[in-house]
DNA sequence: TTGAAAGCGCTAACAC
DNA sequence: GTGTTAGCGCTTTCAA
C-alpha cells in the first residue's frame, strides 16, 4: 500500500491539512514543520495520489491529442515527430499526454465530446485541420481550451501555429520556373484538409504571376502516403504531354513519385524534377536527396503545446497566432527542364 | 457545470446510491427505477466524472507507454503504427493511452517509478527491449502489470510478443546465398537492443551452416535511422573487397543504404543487393521496392495491448508469450551476385 | 428494492 | 502557525 498524507500526519503527530500545506510549500507553515514533513514523506516513500489531486482540483493536468488515423496501417513519420514535440513539452511542464487514435468521423467527434464532458483532459491539441472542421466547431462552442496546428475556415478566434503553405508553394513554383519548367504536375493533399487550399492557392497565384497557363498544370489528389504519390505520378507521366516537374505536397508522396519516375527509367533531377514539403529527416537521405519546403514539425509541436498550457493555466487570455515563414531546401531532386 | 449523480438523484427523488447502482446496472434495482434514472441522466447530459470514478475504484483505466526517443527529431514510422495498434485496442476496451517520451536513461526509469507509485496508469507496455533492461527489472520487482514487444535477457516470467528475428535473418541469408552472394555487409541495430542479438545470431548461424567465412561478413552498427544506413553503407562500399549484399536490420536503414549505393552509380538489385526488416508500408514503394522481412507492427501493438488488459483485469494470470514466425517479402532490391 | 453512512486521498475556507 | 470541518463525485458496505 502506498503511503498517504494521512500516514505522514500520523507519523509526525500533525493533521493532514498541515502536511498538505507543508508539501505544497505554503508560507503559513513553519520551516521546521516543513522540514519534518519532507523528511517523513521521504522516509515513507510518499507520492501523492494523482487521481485524488485531480478530483479535488477539478483539473486533470492532461493534454488530449486525438490522432486522425487513416486506414489500419497508420505509418507516418510526421506523427511520431509531432507527438515527441508535444510529449516532451507537456512533461516538462508537468502535464500528461493522452493519445487516442480515431478515423475522422462521428466516432471521432463523439470522443472529443466525451473527453470534454467527463473531464478527462484539460485541453486539446488539434492536428491536420480540415475544411469545415467539426472538431473546431465543437471546441469553440464548448469554450474548452485548445490550440491547433493549422488554420481553419471559420472565425479564427483561437490560438494556432501554422506554416504559410501558400508562400511555401510560391517558393517552389518560382524555383522550378527559374529552372525552365513549363508543365507541372501537382500531387495535392486531400482537398478536405485545410492546408491543401493554401498550398494550391500558392501554386495558382504564382503560376498566374509567371504567366503559366492553367492547362499546363495538372493537379491530382493524393492521400499523403507514399503509395498515392507513386500511383499519381504514374498517371501524370502517362499523359501525352507529361509534366517535367512534379510538385508533391508532402515528402512521403514525393518519395513515391521518385520511385514511379525511376521505375520508368527517368533520372530524377534531370529527366524530371520532383519536390516535396515537410523536410522530414528522411528527405535528406533519399536518392536523390529531396528538394523540399522546410516545416519544423517537432518545434511546431512544442509551440502548440506551450500555447495550450499557457491558456489552460490562465497565464494568458490572448489569442496567439503564429504563421511560420517557410524556406526552400534545395537538394538534388530538381534540375533544368529537359529540352522538349 | 456538468451534471453529477447528485443532480440525477435530486431530479427523480432518489438517493445517489440508487442512481449509481442503476447506472451500473446492478440487479437489486427495479427496472422502472433504472429506466427513470437513465432517462434523467440522458436529459441532463450526464457523463460520469472520470477522476472521481478512478479515485474510488483505485484504478486508472489507463495504459502507459513511454516511447524511448532518440534525439530531438524523432521521426520513425514504426512508432506511429505501433501507437495506432495500441491506441485502437485500448479505446475499444475502454482504456486511455498515456504516452510519454523519454530518452533511455535515469529520467526514463524515474518516470516509470513515479507513474507506478502515483497510480497514474494500470499497466505498462514496454517497447524496444534492451539488453539488461532496467525498465523490466523495475516492473518485475514492483509486481506492476506490463507486457512487452520484445524479449529480454532476464528470466522471461512475463508476457510478451516478439518476432523470431533469428529465423528472419536466416531467411534473408539463405535467400542471398542462393542468389550467389559471398560477401555480406550487415548494418546492425544498436547492440544494446535485445533484438540485435537475435538477428545477428541468425546471420552467424546461417553463415556457419552455409560455410561462409567470418571475414566475409562485415558488421557495422547503425542507429536505426536512414541516415546511419546511408553512412554505414558508404563505409561498407569503401572497403577494398566490398560486399555484394547489404543486410540492413530495419527498413529505414535499408533505404539509407539504397541511397548511398545509388549515389555511387550502383544499381540496387543487380550491382548490389539490399534487404531490410519490418516491411513498413513505405518499403513497397521505394525504388526499387525493398526485399524485407515482414513484421506486423500494428498487429503486434494490438496483441500486446490486449494481453496487458487481460492481465490488468485479472482475466488471466497465466503468462502469455507469443513468438511470431517471420516471412520473407521478396521484391526487387536483390538480384544474383555480380561476377567478381 | 432502496437509503444512510462511510470513505477513496486530497485541498481549502475559516477559525483559533 | 496549525487544526477543524467540509467537500470534490463517486462506489460500496450495511441496514432497513
Notes on the structure:
The structure is a homodimer of 340-residue chains. The first copy, chain A, has helices at 5-12, 16-23, 31-44, 50-57, 77-92, 106-117, 134-142, 165-178, 194-210, 226-238, 251-263, 297-313, and strands spanning 62-68, 96-102, 123-127, 146-149, 159-163, 184-188, 217-221, 245-248, 273-275, 292-293, 321-324, 328-329. Chain A is elongated. In chain A, helix 1 (5-12) crosses helix 3, helix 2 packs across helix 3 (31-44) and helix 5 (77-92) runs parallel beside helix 12 (297-313). The termini of chain A are far apart. Chain A folds into three domains: 5-48, no CATH class; 62-163 and 297-324, Rossmann fold (3-Layer(aba) Sandwich); 165-294, Response regulator (Rossmann fold, 3-Layer(aba) Sandwich), CATH 3.40.50.2300. The longest helix of chain A is centred in the middle third of the chain and has 17 residues, at 194-210. Chain A has twelve helices and twelve strands. In chain A, the strands form three sheets. Chain A has a six-stranded parallel sheet with strand order 2-1-3-4-5-11, with helices on both faces. A four-stranded parallel sheet of chain A has the order 7-6-8-9, with helices on both faces. A two-stranded antiparallel ribbon of chain A has the order 10-12. Chain A is α/β, with parallel strands linked by helices and 340 residues long. Chains A and B meet through helix 4, helix 5, strand 2, helix 6 and helix 10 of A and helix 4, helix 5, strand 2, helix 6 and helix 10 of B. The first copy, chain A, binds a DNA duplex (16 and 16 nucleotides) through helix 2 and helix 4. Chains A, B: Residues 3-57 form the HTH lacI-type domain. Chains A, B: Keywords: DNA-binding, Transcription, Transcription regulation. Chains A, B: One of its GO terms (molecular function) is DNA-binding transcription factor activity. Chains A, B: This is HTH lacI-type domain-containing protein.
